[in-house]
Amino acid sequence: MGSPGSGKSTFARRLSQVTGIPVVSLDALYWRPGWQPSDAAEFQARVAEAVRLPRWIIDGDYIWWAGDVRRGVADAVIWFDLPRRTCMVGLMNRIATSYGRVRPEMAEGCPERINLEFFRYVWTYRREQRPKLLQYFGGLRADQPLICFTDRAQAERYLANFSQHEHAEVVH
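and the corresponding structure tokens:
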């Protein structure tokens, strides 16, 4: 979980490579071709189906529609609580490398684009979305660790030190 541009999707793919656990992208479940949003019931049904898989790594937030079902069954939550500048640079790099193409974690028919509303969302993420995430994290069970990265180097160290045998049960 965390702001767009924070490195969540890259981390999820790399964690999947290390563990063999499949990644489920909430963006791919939510968006329909042409950047058309799913309706709430359709999206919730897709997420409910995804969390019935034996093991998964879910990439994304979407706490307003899909948060409770994931929180109810997740073994752990990984949160990228990175500064705005890091996320904005990440977003710019993503646009520079993927503009006009569909990223692996995105739904078919949704190529990377420049969208001022999305820039605003990332720019205001810490102020507007972070408090909602903190409230969401307050509902985690005692046995659900919250793994928080405040810079990308921490995420890199986590992956470098990751032992599939020690942590495979932590990530559902």
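(Above: one complete record from the training split.) The domain at 8-167 is CATH 3.40.50.300 (Rossmann fold).
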